[in-house]
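Sequence only, no structure available. Ideas?
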Amino acid sequence: MEDRLFNYTQLKKEKDLDVLMEEIGDARVVMLGEATHGTSEFYTWRTAISKRLIQQKGFGFIAVEGDWPECYAVNRLIKGYQGENSKIADVLQVYKRWPTWMWANWEVAALIEWIREYNHLKSVQEKVGFYGLDVYSLWESLDQIMSFMENNNGQAAEAARMAISCFEPFNRDPQEYAQATAFVPTDCEQEVVEMLQKVQAQRVYHDDSEREFNTHQNALVAVNAERYYRAMIQGGSNSWNVRDSHMMETLDRLLEFHGPEAKAIVWEHNTHVGDASYTSMADDGMYNIGQLARERYGRDQVKLIGFGTYQGTVVAGKSWGAPMQKMEVPPAVEGSWEDMLHRMDDEDKIILAKDLRDVPALQKPIGHRAIGVVYDRRYEAFGNYVPTLIPDRYDAFLYFDETEAVHPLRMKTRNGKEPDLYPWNF
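Reply:
I predicted one. Tokens follow.
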């Protein structure tokens, strides 16, 4: 092992988070990252941090890299609006879109159960919420709007019907829609924009402001999802930027809805949370929610916290939509940020960015591991490291020397079949 290059705090127990709580201070937004979408330790330690932020610093909601309709169903449950006696594992069956394991897992179930218990004796205004920031749920959001409008014959309902009618020829397949509109000047942009305008102008629920917000949010998702899928088929950075801009817009709306004193916890991948302007992503014209939040609210009000691992196991698929698998994560490549941390010693660590300012090796970009929902370790060294200025990309970093895969719930897919994806037992 090499000599210690900078100060850090060993991470062994919940009390060790004290140094992180002090660093967060009075920030309004705390973003908690992850180097993969399938590592147990990332979920459990984000839960531990979130509990303390809620209990000690008054944070009012968690917003995650998940679809709005599904997360909103969980939100209604933990606030006691519906299904108060439902089992959390059953409620999480709402996550049917691949990659299901991201939110339908036992680690998230533990978090949701804790929030529900925390909320039990709280007033409506004090209850902690759970929301989705992502933009993928085009059809699900359209379905929800129609469900909300089915007893309303106003202009908003008619606009919603027109939007759904426009999308019907594409068999609820966003790829088919994007491909069909790529080279033909015919798309559904006008229909969803008109729907959004009509929905925003019409009050639907006079006695449930959050349900009203949900209706408006689903209309916004439909508009931005339509833009996202069209941009995706064209390639380049635009689709990424549409997606993260939508996430930022949703976070803005949630903070505004919860009031001037509201504080938000965000759970997303490091590639969204860590400020993209200090990575090679910026060279490709990409930005992310971490960068946008810093620019909007100021660096003292936004704390970006990355997570990483040297080796272990992870849940991922070998291609988009492929069966999820428990995969080996090999030791980080030589010269990477994770390799540097491992060579210092094999302790799990909390590292503050302010302790990295004078480290010569970190004054230039260093490779920083990023594993998504698709992973093939054969290409580990070529496609899974983002050149990063670590001291500027994050305000703090949690490092785990060896990690294990997240624990997905058994669940059925949209075609009603239970996947035979489990090479281990729970």
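The radius of gyration is 21 Å.
Hope that gets you unstuck.
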